[in-house]
Amino acid sequence: MNKEVLATVAGREITQEEFEAFLASVPREQQAYVNNPQFRQHCLEQLTALHMFAQMGEDIKLEETDDFKKAYENARRDILAQMAMRETLKDVVITDEEVREYYDANRQQFNKGETVNAKHILTDSEEKCNDILRAVTNGEKTFEEAAKEFSTCPSKARGGDLGEFGKGQMVKEFEEAAFAAEIGHVVGPVKTQFGYHLIKVEKKQEASTADFQEIKENLRANLLQQKQGTVYNAKVAELKEKYMK
After folding, report:
1. DSSP per-residue string spanning 45-108
2. Which residue in 73, 155, 167, 233 is a FRET match for 11, CA 20 to 30 A apart?
3. The Cα angle at residue 215 between residues 209 and 218, in degrees rounded to 5
4. Which residues of 90-106 are buried (b: 16+ CB within 10 A; e: fewer)?
5. Per CATH, the architecture of 114-206 is what?
6. What's the rounded Cα separation, in Å, for the pair 168 and 174?
7. Rg, the chain, Cα only
8. Measuring CA to CA, which residue among 154, 158, 174 is closest to residue 166?
9. Secondary-structure breakdown of the chain: helix, strand, coil percentages, each rounded to the nearest 5
10. What is the tens place of the pLDDT at every residue in 78-122?
């Protein structure tokens, strides 16, 4: 424990240990800055101000007010409850064997359906679609250039890229054309409720089962949460019997 004194407020020392604990409590989105000297100085000033206001509260006897007593009791309750919950859950763990056993017994949960990666160009008429198709086929423009110039879909900014999608995520006509298309070939016009599409499939992935190593840690976290929930609920039931008779 680092007892180096960083500041003194009304005779009370602010140590490096206390400051590090204060830094650990800053919002998650600010944690990336905790090693920045300017940010650390700003935080030290905040901690010092906290001590000064606390001392001011003592000086004007705020501890004697009803508001302070209520807030203190609420804070005491919350801290005790949080510590007791941690004590209840501290021994709850999920072993590698449990994770593997669940995976093997529930493989159907980890099935990944067939997917494709595709780009498209959306227009409001079949005629426009055919004109664009001819330009792409003749090599006047690449598919991506044509998407940026002519497509009415927001994906035009990415050259028409829709990323990866599976069955049931797109409208029926679009899905059927995309999954039937050969990789690298442009198909269309395909009519949907949104207009007329040209579709270029970049990649296809066959249906598969997610690899155990790929999902192991996420699965462990989910199983731990479930086990903690079970232990928590059992403890609540036990405490009801003890304290609510």
Report:
1. HHHHHHHHHHHHHHHTTGGGSHHHHHHHHHHHHHHHHHHHHHHHHTT----HHHHHHHHHHTGG
2. 73
3. 145
4. eeeebeeeebeebbeee
5. Roll (3.10)
6. 10
7. 31
8. 174
9. 60, 20, 20
10. 999 999 999 999 999 999 999 999 999 998 889 888 999 999 999
Q: How far apart are CA 101 and CA 98, in angstroms?
A: 5
State pLDDT tens for residues 187-238. 989 999 999 999 999 999 888 888 899 899 999 999 999 999 999 999 999 9
Cα–Cα dist 161/151, whole Å: 11
Letter string b/e over residues 52-88, b meaning 16 or more CB atoms within 10 A of that residue's CB: eeeeeeeeeeeeeeeeeeeeeeeeeeeeeeeeeeeeb
Smallest CA-to-CA distance from 84 within 238, 244, 222, 226 is with 238
Pairing state of beta strands 115-123 and 111-112? unpaired
> Structure pTM?
0.61
Give the Cα separation of 59 and 57 in Å (integer). 5
Residue 20 pLDDT greater than 90, yes or no? yes
Q: How much is the pLDDT for 1?
A: 66
At residue 3 the predicted structure's pLDDT band, cuts being 50, 70 and 90, is: confident
Q: Give the pairing of strands 195-205 and 12-15.
A: unpaired
Q: How far apart are CA 74 and CA 49, in angstroms?
A: 24
Tell me the β-bridge partners of 8: 13
pLDDT average, residue stretch 10-27: 93
